[in-house]
Design brief:
The chain is built from ten helices and two strands, in the order βαβααααααααα. Helices cover 57% and strands 5% of the residues. Strands 1-2 form a two-stranded antiparallel ribbon. It is mainly alpha-helical and 163 residues long. The longest helix is centred in the middle third of the chain and has 19 residues.
Length: 163
């Protein structure tokens, strides 16, 4: 009877008997490559199947001694095509040349560059100042400048509401 790796359950503490399952001898004989792989990779000492907890196991008597190192460490080959790097590089350079150098500025670009974010979003500066005042007061910092600017914003809002 030959042993192969079976389905490993999610519990990492399973015994060797639960991890390995017997394979039918007809399956191993019918596929010579399978037989060679399993013979080299999963050769185990049947003495290890018994639960001997009398002490440490010598490496030469363990299943790791008989495991094929080529089976244990598989290096995945790089399947990236050779032309991928030049194509990506040329595309990135083309886009950057267009957006950084060749493209002319439009009125939207000028609006975005000249105004602050507080001018674009109504009420953002007031909310930001309130959060800063709260943070400064919790940490014992001076909040006079922030409170003055908040008073200016509230005065501007009162003028807009009055109109």
């Amino acid at each position: 009877m030959m042993w192969t790796a079976g389905t490993v359950k999610s519990n990492a503490c399973l015994g060797l008997r639960q991890i390995l399952r017997p394979i039918a001898s007809s399956e191993a004989v019918s596929n010579p490559a399978l037989n060679l792989i399993f013979r080299r990779s999963f050769t185990i000492n049947r003495g290890l199947l018994a639960d001997n907890s009398s002490g440490p196991v010598k490496f030469t008597k363990s299943a790791g001694f008989n495991t094929n190192p080529m089976f244990a460490v598989r290096v995945k080959q790089d399947d990236t095509p050779g032309y991928q790097f030049p194509i990506i590089t040329i595309s990135m350079i083309s886009f950057m040349a267009y957006f950084f150098f060749l493209r002319e500025e439009s009125d939207i670009d000028q609006d975005l560059g000249s105004k602050s974010l507080f001018d674009h979003i109504e009420g953002l500066e007031k909310a930001q100042l309130e959060a800063c005042i709260r943070y400064y007061s919790e940490n014992g910092m001076d909040t006079r400048a922030l409170r003055a600017r908040l008073a200016e914003i509230e005065a501007e809002e009162d003028i807009k509401d009055a109109e």
